[in-house]
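Let us practice reading a record.
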Amino acid sequence: MKTGKRLALLIALFLFATTNAMAESVTLRLADQFPLTHFASKTGSQAFIKKVDEMSNKTIKIKHFPAQQLAKASGMLDAVKNRVADIAVCGVVYVSDRMPLSGAAMLPGLFNEVTTGTRAYTKLANKELLEAEFLRHGVRPLWVSLAPVYQLQLTAQESITSLDDIKGKKLRTAGAIMELTAKALGATPVTIGPSDFYLSLQRGTVDGAIYTIPGWRAYSLQEVLNSSTVNAGLGSVAFATLINEDVWQGLSPETQSILRKAGEATGTGAAAIFDRVVAKSNEKMKAAGKNVYALSPAVLEQMSVRLATVEKVWLDQMKNRNLPGDKILEAFKRYLNEQ
């Protein structure tokens, strides 16, 4: 009889503890660089907050600080590391000196679909990069994401049938990897800010850009650009949504599980949306008379050979810093080929 009562008491205590753990009330501050109207905010932070609300029955509250309210875009890593924010969306390109190995996910010639790249980068972030790139800064990734993949885009209407067609052409680029990419393909990289993008194309200061069709309308580029590849795969921009490690360790396992699952769903969902947006944008530009086309296998082979030099430069940079770039890139390529 005593044994039965003791067992019933233990079960009751267990259920009480579990219920309290599940009902843990937590408020976390999330910072990012995007205004609420920005596509990246809607598919990223806002989607994550909604998922957390649903999964936790609103016991986990995320207080959102968009549009660089808590920190500039370049300061998001420091903001979450120093607990100005508990969670922050960090553009890896802004902290490439401190998170250099994530550059593997931004190299050209590796993938064309955001879903493929994001899936591989997620595995990399949770395995090979977890300690080497994140925990050493006192943060851990809740999810990672990639922007739509860059393509070759020209003011000319004609398709590129050989890399000789872009030899010497001036292409608007942004960032060191993109500059190396343009040079490797035989083009001349030109750094131009967003505000001068349209005029530089209109006036012929540049002949085109390494860019994405979904970004055209923001700068009215559909008025000056007339052609775009769909399969050049010239790299992407990586983002990592990070939580402070001390904050993470102070959360219950149930709360951690909810944040992890919500983060994974957000990253996967955003990637799928990006791919759909790219496909829809391509069709719209085709209907508007733009030449949106696939490069031939022969041209892709030419590009693969040329872009190997970009990969080598990156590997040499990692080697000079005594970082395992070769192992990270090998793992990323392996994950790209996994289903």
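A brief commentary: Confidence is low (pLDDT under 50) at residues 9-21.
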